[in-house]
Amino acid sequence: MICEREFGRGPGQLFGERNLVAHLDDFEGDPRRRPLTVDELEAFFGACEARIAACRARGRKGSLQAWRDQALFKVKFAWGLRRAEVAMLDICDFRPAGKLPEFGAYGQVHVRYGKAKRGGGPQRRTVLTVFDWAVEVIEQYVSEIRPSFGCPEHPAVFLTERGTRIAVGYINERFAEIRDEAGLPQQLTPHCLRHSYVTHLAEQGWAAQFIQDQVGHSHAATTAIYLSVGDDFKDRLVRAAIDEQLAELAAVR
């Protein structure tokens, strides 16, 4: 009213789609991506175990690669890593965490090749270890499996039989093979393990900001896209909210 009286016109919208910065740098909301259910995770890693057992039974050389693949996908899930991030991991990227002495040398992972933002280089972040079983996986792999590749001087965590670093394309191909052997839906991709990590932490009650920092998202909305919590978790939230409201009403009375 004042603007119209003083200037002859009212305020207009200054910002719109043409001049607002879109949050595209870490958008990963492909609708085909979803977390694996608990049963699907068990089936996938069960198929990894079956590959190892089959290679051993037949006396095939592939058992070493099968062990490596299992460790690779468990590390990817346990620290919520992208494909390129796990492929580019070096041994020195695993470090102790001062307040997590029980995890020894594997208390945290320093990710040096995170997803780049528009116009910038790879983003770095530190991912804290939250699963004790993951420490056992990486310890066994580094001490018992990796030395058999015969490249002790190579910095990479995951090596090929030729002594080179694992490529992202290999991760895609191997995941698809194991997924199909486990009888899982074909729309599942390696990135779905990252979605599973986010959902798993949320269902365990970890704070939203902590989860966002762990996976390296600039915006909480991106992390929210990853979430697909189960009905049991939703039921517990509703039950807790109702109980809290009833307790407040009882206190007022």
Structure description:
By secondary structure, this protein is mostly helical. It has a domain of 158 residues: Intergrase catalytic core (hpI Integrase, Chain A, Orthogonal Bundle), CATH 1.10.443. 50% of the residues lie in helices and 6% in strands. A three-stranded antiparallel beta sheet has the order 1-2-3. A hairpin with an 8-residue loop joins strand 2 and strand 3. Helix 2 packs antiparallel against helix 3. The chain is globular, with a radius of gyration of 23 Å. About 4% of the residues have low confidence.
Which helices and strands appear, and what pairs or packs with what?
Blueprint: H1 2-7, H2 38-58, H3 63-78, H4 83-87, E1 94-95, E2 108-114, E3 123-128, H5 132-145, H6 168-181, H7 191-203, H8 208-215, H9 220-226, H10 231-252
Antiparallel strand pairs: 1-2, 2-3
